[in-house]
User: Which sequence fits this backbone?
């Protein structure tokens, strides 16, 4: 599905990613872990096409299509979804109206007509029920006055509605209490299928108790320095990252 080959990227002339290669297949969950400043969020941004980062070398393909030169909107239309660490507030635009616009823009890009209102309403109700979202929540202004947990739940709702091929959750556990964490993780698990893939970027193993990864990758100094199964996340929780640095030196 997603093939990242020898990606180098910089921001304002400073190199952040220094040769990332990663292959993700449909049905898989990959966790990216690493200390602050290692390049985790930069990798998420590069996949999504955020323009402040410059790719200086390497390629990114999604389902055989080279997306390296595509802008974020085109990549979204190709099926990439990025959940933000800090979702923005949009006063006056309801959760429902925002998602209607997003879905119909996606359809327009594929040469389809707007989704009929009755079909849209049915889908919204089904996904809201799946994620245990109160209908009143859907009429609120996007992220305005939302708690951290509500913002993250809203992003999982957007993911459910857009049905992306590849969902990237960038530190979606940041600032969540255990109840909110379980709600978000439960939503992600319900949306996983053999046809889509999930990338979870996190500092902590606790999220991976609820979203079980097939692979864990450790990113340090702009490179993937170690990969393994979910057991690697437990090792990191117990030992920190210093033992990996020691392995690299030896």
Assistant:
């Amino acid at each position: 599905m997603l093939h990242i080959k020898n990606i180098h990227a910089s921001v304002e002339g400073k190199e952040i990613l220094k040769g990332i290669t990663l292959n993700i297949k449909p049905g898989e969950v990959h966790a990216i872990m690493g200390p602050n400043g290692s390049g985790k969020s930069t990798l998420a941004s590069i996949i999504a096409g955020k323009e402040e980062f410059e790719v200086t070398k390497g390629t990114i393909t999604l389902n055989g299509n080279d997306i390296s030169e595509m802008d974020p909107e085109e990549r979204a239309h190709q099926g990439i979804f990025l959940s933000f660490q800090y979702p923005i507030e949009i006063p006056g635009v309801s959760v429902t109206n925002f998602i209607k616009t997003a879905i119909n823009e996606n359809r327009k890009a594929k040469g389809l007509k707007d989704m009929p209102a009755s079909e849209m309403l049915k889908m919204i109700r089904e996904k809201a029920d799946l994620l245990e979202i109160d209908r009143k929540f859907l009429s609120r202004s996007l992220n305005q006055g939302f708690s951290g947990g509500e913002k993250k739940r809203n992003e999982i709702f957007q993911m459910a509605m857009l049905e992306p091929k590849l969902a990237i959750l960038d530190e979606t556990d940041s600032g969540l209490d255990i109840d909110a964490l379980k709600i978000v993780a439960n939503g992600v698990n319900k949306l996983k299928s053999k046809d889509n893939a999930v990338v979870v970027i996190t500092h902590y193993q606790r999220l991976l108790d609820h979203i079980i990864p097939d692979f864990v990758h450790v990113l340090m100094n702009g490179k993937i320095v170690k990969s393994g199964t979910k057991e690697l996340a437990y090792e990191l929780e117990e030992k920190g990252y210093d033992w990996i640095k020691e392995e690299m030196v030896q």
